Amino acid sequence: MADQATQAWRADDADRAEMAERVERSGTSFYWSMRLLPRAKREAMFAIYAFCRAVDDLADEPAPVESKRAGLAEWRAEIDRLYAGRPTHAVARALVEPVARFGLRREDFLAVIDGCEMDANGPVVAPDWPTLRLYCARVAGAVGHLSVHVFGAPGPLGDRLAASLGEAVQLTNLLRDVAEDARDGRLYLPRELLLQHGVPTSPAMALSHPALAQVCLEVAQAAEARFAEAGEALAKLPRRPMTPARIIMGIYRRLLAKLVAQGFRRLEPKVRLNKGEKLRIALAKVLW
Known about the structure:
By secondary structure, this protein is mostly helical.
């Protein structure tokens, strides 16, 4: 995609600025790690995040299922156009250079869309562990695979980091959002644990069950195990290029620790890290 014909399809400064604005406006914890990257890598990560945000918002919008599926199908077509060197959407145009420069894989973008389609098809309610892990692999692990290519760690060790850290981050997010998701008719906690502890699989009923805290604690333990696996992979990868991954891991591991410390007895207000906490973690990972 580096030939002269492709140049016309690449992002201009306005597209790049729009991607940066989308990320900053979102308030995502990932912003703190992206800002530290060299320009080409930073712009690549901004574009990847903007893509993920676009398809996730499409899956979550209050629209008929058929409309959501059509929108996601159009994004699959846009990914095809991206890899053919003729994207039409601003986000896809911003991805042209990162795809070429960092060898980003088509299947990872498509996996993100597949994960969002799991949400678009109707509320996810008490999936079994294999389905939950598939969901995490698609909506978070695939993003991790794209990210490690940008950071500079393609290959088996980078794949291991992407899979383990992606699942850990997504499980942490799901634990943070249990109450909010339940109000939307969703329950991402694994069916096996709910049944084991006698918790109803109905989101509304599960939310008020006294054993829900134990289910959440065991999911948190699974997340911590995946953080530990990610830490092992990070220890074997070059330190400086992987600073963004260490920041992401530090922020989300701290969030998980806060959730566990609270004991899941009170699910609202939502547990968060403030900007100061995130910044301190980011600085610690840069200086360490």
